[in-house]
Each structure stands twice: as C-alpha cells, then as structure tokens.
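Q: Got a minute? One more chain.
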Amino acid sequence: MAEERAGARPMVAPWRPPRTEWVVKLSKLCNLRCRYCYEYPHLGDATKMSLDQLGAFFRAVAGGFAGCGRKMSFVWHGGEPLLHKPDYFRAIFDLQRAILEPSGLAWSNSLQTNLTVVNDALIELLREHIEHIGVSFDVLGGQRVDRRGEVADERVAGNMQRLREAGLSFGCITVLSRANVDHVASIYRFFEEIETSFRLLPIYRTGYDGQQDAHALAPEEIVGALCLAVDLWLESSSHIQVRPVEDYVDMVVRRLDGGASYRRFYDKRAAEIIYMVDTDGSLYSNADAYAPALRHGNVFRDSFAELRRSIGYRTALARAEARMAAACPGCRYHGACSGFPMAEATPEQRWLGADGSLRCAVVQPVLEHVERRLVEAGIVDKARELIPAERLLIA
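A: Always. Here it is, folded:
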C-alpha cells in the first residue's frame, strides 16, 4: 500500500512509470577492452542467449506484465551486441512479435553499442528494428581501447558519421572518469558541434576488486562535473538533449511548482523500473547486478510470480526501501525526485557521511545548484519550455 512505502508522504496518488526497461545481456563477448568496463573479466566469453532461452524470457514477460499498462523497453546490451549476425536479431524480433503481441503489451527495442563494427546489413537491421541507438563514446580520455591497446575513438567517430549519412539518429553515453573529468566543457562542445544528444555517466559498477581505483571519481568531483554541465546547458542555444542535466532541471522545476502535482515516489514493490537480465537468465534489480544473494531468479525458467516470491527479490526490495527511508524523507526534493537514485544506487553509489549514515552525495547537491541557477536567472518557466513532456524523466 502507498502509505507503507518507505519514505512516502500521505495522501498522494500512486505514481506508475510509463515503461519497464529490460537491459538484456545477450553475450559478454566484446572486441574492445575498455579499462573501466564492469564486464571486463568476461569480455572474451562468446556464450550467448539461445533463441529458446529468449522465447522463454518473452513468455515470462508476457505472463507477468500483460495488462499492466506499461511499455516494455528492451535494451540489447553486452559485451558488444553488433558482433552478432543480423539474422540472430531478426529471429529475436520474430519471437517478440509472436509472443508479446497476443498479450497486448507494447514494446520497443534499443541497442547499446561501441559502434566499432558497422556494415550495410547492420545499418539495415538498425533502420528496421531499433527505436533508439546508444553509442558508447567518451570523446576524450583514451580508455576505450581494443585488445591491442589501441584507442578506438577515431573508428567510432567515423562510424557515427556513417550512421548520420544513412539517416539514422543516435545518442551517446560518455563515461565520466578520472581520465576525462577535467574536460567536461570540451566534451559538451563536441556534442554540440555534431548536434548529438548525450549522457554523462559516472562510473557506477566494478568488475573486480581494485579495477576502478585509477578511474572512479569522488562524489565531490562528480558533483563539480555535473554542475559544470548544468551551467553549459543553461548557456547553450543548442537543442540537443543532455542527461542527466535535463532530468535534474525537470525535478527542480516540478519542485518549484509546489503543490501535490509534483510528487512522484518510486514504488519498487508495485513497479520496478529497470531490470538487468544476465546471459544465463539471472534477473537482478538495477542496483544489485551481479550479487548472488540479490538474484531474483531465472527468467528462462521461472514465472514472474515465482521471481517476486524469491528470497533474492524480497531481500533486494527490503534493502532498496531501507535506502530510500534512510536518505530521502528529509530531502526537500523528495517527491520531485522519486527516490529512484537512492533505491537503485549500486554499491559504488552508496556514499556515507561522517556519521556513517547513507547520504545522497551527488543528486541532492546538483539539484541545489540547479535551483540556485534557475532562481538567480529568473528562468524557471523558460527551463520548463526547454524540456518537452515526452522527454521528461521517468524515474
């Protein structure tokens, strides 16, 4: 019930996200060896999901979500998904239609790629079936290297141009790390010049002990980089989408509106927003991959009723609600920020204060910066106009 939800405020109508996102690890195989990649230990493993397994996955989704009113958003991930042949993807999409259409579910397909491998057949596949193409491209820092240690950026930039010439739109994800944190302005200007939307994503997962010691940033450094991105966004005349900047601006604008209309509370129990599906079918919440004790079960074998009764799911739920209860209720932005950043924080994102308590060390200070900037400039209404409704944050 809504009143039992951790950190919830009374008398607020339940909020349901418009979609459920499935990050599906078709295979861990990759032709790059990006130094901060959390899949690094497994990038040589060619094991991939079979069509029978994917059919079982779609049947589990159809059985568990028919009639829920939310769109199913499948994000095909890896490893590098474009190492798989187009016929493999077409067979997957045929299974989707055969299984999901009778259930009445709406769905979409996205793909996250390093874009090092592009040919005419793959371009046609992307054109026919992929609603959103995400390209991993850091611009600067030299962390995205192949197995010989050679930086792949020039090859990726050339393939981005090839997508543009083919009329395909895409967005980019830039991993924010020690190697490029001092170059946020240059990264921002690069994407402005090529008129491409992008997301700044601080390192948030670790593949093995010590991997991120030379790469990860302190929360204060992340805050500084994101605040600079906010300032650049406010100064820019470009129409590209910049995340998480627009998400944070949306939260602040809704907070400044006041009243009950701005309130949204993440209710993981009622509607999980992001699932991760590992290559073997193991299902995790966004916060918990790949923690064995927090594994919900296996989508190749288990129904969603069984998955939601599992000890792993119930433990993950309790811990997420506890994180929200510890960090969110006293925050003035809670309700404008749904609490999702704390509920689904990975271990790398669970920063503690001097007293040992969990603290919102990135989102809250960036929201405070956004609010100061909007109020000082007197452009709250203008900020609202800059973010069309269809681009507003779901979490």
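A: The CA atoms of residues 192 and 238 lie 6 Å apart.
Q: Perfect, thanks.
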